[in-house]
Specification:
This protein is mostly helical. The chain has two domains: 87 residues, RNA polymerase sigma factor, region 2, helix turn helix motif (Rna Polymerase Sigma Factor, Chain: A), CATH 1.10.1740; 86 residues, Arc Repressor Mutant, subunit A, CATH 1.10.10.10. Helix content is 69%, strand content 0%. α2 packs parallel to α4. The longest helix has 23 residues. The radius of gyration is 18 Å and the shape is globular. The protein starts with 6 loop residues before the first helix and ends with a helix. The relative contact order is 0.10. It comes from Buttiauxella agrestis. GO terms for molecular function: DNA binding; sigma factor activity. InterPro entries: RNA_pol_sigma-70-like, RNA_pol_sigma-70_dom, RNA_pol_sigma70_r2, RNA_pol_sigma70_r4_t2, RNA_pol_sigma_r2, RNA_pol_sigma_r3/r4-like, WH-like_DNA-bd_sf. Keywords: Sigma factor, Transcription, Transcription regulation.
Length: 175
């Protein structure tokens, strides 16, 4: 029999992941207010479904999956409300909010230009340090899809000459 976790323990665990959830919500939506709403909805759903969480499994992966599911459902609902019917979330591209000239911000700008599926995968694997398998569970896709998205994202970023020209590695090679 699988061990269940108490509601109080769930609340404490969720509190530990709030900033990471908010950051993922911001990556998905590119809006602070929407990230706040996503985190709140994630917390509510996690508490409602606390009996489904199995003690010993990864709480962060479970919470990221909930947040991702809420985001996908909201995007699809918005498209339907606008009369655009069902769309693939990969078609949506968010706004960029950073004009800071620091190199890491340039990288983030370019990452934000990636298609949403690639951007989300990059975030989960490289920022949140989920394994390919864990990211696949969160995104509800096969592991091979995660690997493909990462490879495509890396290729896209590597081909960005402006990024390469500003990279500290490449600056050191030019003499």
């Amino acid at each position: 029999m699988e061990a269940k976790i108490s509601n109080e323990t769930i609340r404490k665990e969720i509190a530990q992941y709030l900033s990471r959830l908010w950051r993922y919500g911001l990556v998905l939506s590119h809006r602070r207010d929407v990230a706040d709403d996503l985190v709140q909805a994630t917390c509510v759903r996690a508490l409602e479904r606390a009996p489904q969480f199995i003690a010993g499994s990864r709480m962060d992966r479970w919470l990221f999956s909930i947040l991702h599911s809420i985001w996908i459902n909201e995007v699809r609902a918005q498209q339907i409300r606008r009369g655009q019917g069902f769309v693939d979330v990969d078609e949506l591209v968010g706004e960029e909010h950073s004009d800071d000239p620091i190199w890491s911000n340039d990288v983030m700008k370019r990452v934000n230009r990636l298609p949403e599926a690639q951007r989300n995968t990059v975030f989960l694997v490289y920022v949140e340090e989920l394994s390919y398998r864990e990211a696949a569970v969160v995104l509800n896709v096969p592991v091979g899809t995660v690997m493909s998205r990462l490879a495509t994202a890396r290729l896209t970023l590597a081909q960005d000459i402006a990024l390469q020209a500003r990279s500290p590695q490449f600056k050191g090679e030019k003499q």
